[in-house]
Amino acid sequence: MTIDLYYSPASSPCRSILLLGKTLGIHFNLIETRLCRGDNFRPEFSRINYEHSIPTLVDNGFALWESRAILIYLADKYGKEDTLYPKNAQRKAIVNQRLYFDMGTLFQRLADCYLKPVIEKKPVDPQDSWKMEEAVGFLNIALAGHKYAAGDTMTIADFALVATISTYEGLKFDLTPYANVTKWFNRCKKHMRGYEINQRGVDDFVRTVAPLLPKTE
After folding, report:
1. Environment class of 83 (CB within 10 Å of its CB; exposed 0-12, middle 13-18, buried 19+)
2. How many H helices and E strands in the chain?
């Protein structure tokens, strides 16, 4: 089995794939792809992914990108049971909702408030923090009464969300007011195989962007 993963260790979507790979016992052929030097626009990569985005997976010639789609594919193909991505329609719908929430709200607000300004070398507006606070608040409500994002068992939604929330934490976002998020996050840190891979990626990301972020007293 040969599965190539074009990735950056600092990228939270890429880290979600690495975490799931650990749980599924997948050994990726890791190909670091540095956007800052244009690796994603090289002809060999463009032939694989016309959107020039990472993570990009190539599984024996089958190419796929968009991290949440990759999570679903890997769980479907390589999961030994359906706990990570349930077959039951309603349970699956909840997992999908959490994935879309991560993509469209939780991660998107992080991207809008921090990542986009940093990439464009524009100042980060500290007053945008309310958008991130609201998003984490939504997650806090969703986690009420549950051990994990979509119920009492770990699913692929947890891998996506924990990669994002750990980036919030790395950027010194205060999670303490969100008791459900804090308990869930600590549980994921304890029970996700290979969590240290994610933490190393967060640390790399923070070292890169820290000089560009607003100074706090």
Report:
1. middle
2. 10, 4
Q: Is the Cβ–Cβ distance between 155 and 95 less than 8 Å?
A: yes
DSSP, res 7: E
The CA distance from 150 to 96, in Å, is: 9
Check if the beta carbon of residue 73 is closer than 8 Å to that of residue 17: no
Dihedral-angle region of residue 38 (phi above 0 means left; psi in -120 to 50 means alpha; beta otherwise): left
Give the active site residues.
11
pLDDT value at residue 77 = 97
- Scan for tokens 């479907």, then name that residue: 76
- State pLDDT tens for residues 8-51: 999 999 999 999 999 999 999 999 999 888 999 999 999 999 99
Contacts with 208 (C-beta within 8 Å, 6 or more apart), sequence order: 10
Residue 151 clears pLDDT 60, i.e. is over it: yes
pTM greater than 0.85 (yes/no): yes
Sheet holding 56-59, edge to edge: 29-32, 3-7, 56-59, 62-65
